[in-house]
Amino acid sequence: MREWSHAERAAAAGTEIARMADVLHGEDMSTPVPACPGWDLAGLVSHTGGVHRWVAAMVRDLAERRYDRRAMDMGMPADADGYAAWLREGAVFLPEALLSHDPQAPVWAWGGDRRVRFWSRRMLHETVVHRIDAELALGLPVSVDEDVAADGVEEFLDVLPYARWNPAVAELRGAGETISLQAGTGAGWVITLGPGRFHHRRSPQPGDVTLRAATAADLLQVVWGRRDPDDHAVEGDAGLLAWWRERSRI
């Protein structure tokens, strides 16, 4: 797997924002987004562009506390025709904010790594997943670079223990059961359910249940709940995988 620098992730986040804006340009903003029940494309844009602005403000200020996103003026245009362009603005200001400080500088973050570098990775994958949401809503083919997707799967596993808004995450523990996620392109992880929490490591080994997918991009969509695994791709205890997926929804 590729090892990413903070600067590379910040640049990739900008690229993904521009890609998402391209997908949305000229589309009907009232189109429902099935992956995000209750949202349409307008809601998807508002959320994603709002998160970009929220994070950029906190990183610029090296905020010691969480800013209230609902209290911020995001400057969203009144006319839906301007939504894609509003989203695209983040391709410039977000990487600039992320690169304005040392990646090791402390800043508020909800994950375990409370430094600026947390946010370059989080914003890259926040944007990738929501670009996928837009493509699925519009019936477009989904395409994710394999290096980006592999980092996205690992980032999901890294941040999952800190997703405290889903109480079921705390149930992801056990007596040593293992769940293996394997991509045909080479990336692979084994998750071990310990008595206190789960742990994961890069490994090509099978587990008590093994999910095999053609690509890391396919695995990324499965772990984020954007697609179901193919039945033939599950080896071993399918019930264990279903149990994991139900409790790891964030």
TrEMBL record:
In its keyword annotation, does this UniProt entry include Membrane? no
| Swiss-Prot/TrEMBL keywords | Isomerase
Q: One matching Pfam family, short form?
A: MDMPI_C
What sections of the protein cross the membrane?
Answer: none
Superkingdom to which the source organism belongs? Bacteria
Q: Where is the Mycothiol-dependent maleylpyruvate isomerase metal-binding domain?
A: 11-134
Gene Ontology molecular functions? isomerase activity
Describe the location of the MDMPI C-terminal domain by residue ranges.
147-242
Q: What is this protein called?
A: Maleylpyruvate isomerase family mycothiol-dependent enzyme
Q: Which organism is it from?
A: Streptosporangium fragile
